[in-house]
Amino acid sequence: MAEITTKEKQELSKPQEQTRPGRYYVPDVNIYEFDDSLKLWAEMPGVKEKDLDVTLKDGVLTIIGKVATEMYAGLRPRYTEYNVGNYYREFALNESIDESRIKATLRNGVLELELPKKEQAKPKKIEVRST
Amino acid sequence: MAILGLDPDVDPIGALLSLQGELERFMRNPAFGTGLSGYGVFPPINIFDSTEGAVVVAEVPGLDASKIEVAGEGRTLTISGERTFAPDVSGRGYHRRELNEGKFSRSIQMPDDYDVSRAQARYEAGLLVVRIPVAERAKPRQIAVQSA
Predict the structure, then answer these.
(1) Parallel, antiparallel, or unpaired for β B76-83 and B68-73?
(2) In chain B, positions 68-127, which contact chain A (CB-CB < 8 Å)?
(3) In whole angstroms, what is the distance from residue B16 CA to residue B32 CA?
């Protein structure tokens, strides 16, 4: 199996400015498509469940994670390789998603989102009859 | 100088801003040598001083605590493991695939003042936090003054 290399965390650059100052990062994601759902995983190390906000409105999925800073109280940095900040990412969803059945779990700093497709968006198999 | 002079509960934004500024100041601090495996090797780390010793924080999201190995030998701290991501999706169509998978191993040389063999590790919210106490020999000692 391949070795993992470190990717530089990507800072958010948005046309609009955030009203709150500070750095925002774009979480890396995997998105897979299944017959009846989309599944998304987003890396958000340092985010706890209570500080996570996922919304779907007008076909736009917004993920916001606020990074916990309490653990740094009393610590003085000596050597650093990454900075910390809140996470923010938006996706326009093409599929029509059944909002009422969206499931979100946050485990070990990774958000797992299950986005079930609406009935009419699922592929339908059309039977071909021979005459 | 504590980096969080502000109580994070009272002013979370101020606390985060001051933390970000402090982390930026020590970015790849050349005065602190980490040995052979420097920046670019997974996982990325930050090293702090606390009242008890050093604290190494690594961003390694998406692992089970049982899949991470932390070893201390001499001055060397080694963090290794393997991340396999959702193995049940193989063969599925994907829209985005940005997360890294595979094995990793990183060794860090700590300064001589720390007792790496007594390090303690904890994994929470995708962060590995390793606390390394100051070595007994490096602790300040009171020297009794005898009168002649």
Answers:
(1) antiparallel
(2) 82-86, 89, 92-104, 123, 125-127
(3) 24
Determine the Cα–Cα distance for residues B93 and B23; give it in Å rounded to an integer.
39
pLDDT tens figures, B98-115? 888 889 999 999 988 899
What pTM was estimated for this model as a whole? Answer: 0.83
Tell whether omega for the bond before A15 is within 30 degrees of 0, i.e. cis. no
Q: Angle at CA B30, nearest 5°, toward B29 and B36?
A: 105
The type of residue at A72 is Y
Q: Which residues in chain A have their CB less than 8 angstroms from residue B12's CB? A: 66, 69
Gap between the Cα atoms of B49 and A80, Å rounded: 12
- The pLDDT score that the predictor gives to residue A93 is 86
Q: Who contacts B139 (Cβ-Cβ below 8 Å, separation ≥6)?
A: none
End-to-end CA distance of chain B: 41
- Residue of B127, B128, B131 to mutate when probing chain A, most A C-beta within 10 A: B127
Interface check for B26 against chain A (CB to CB < 8 A): the answer is: yes
> Residue B3's pLDDT is what?
46
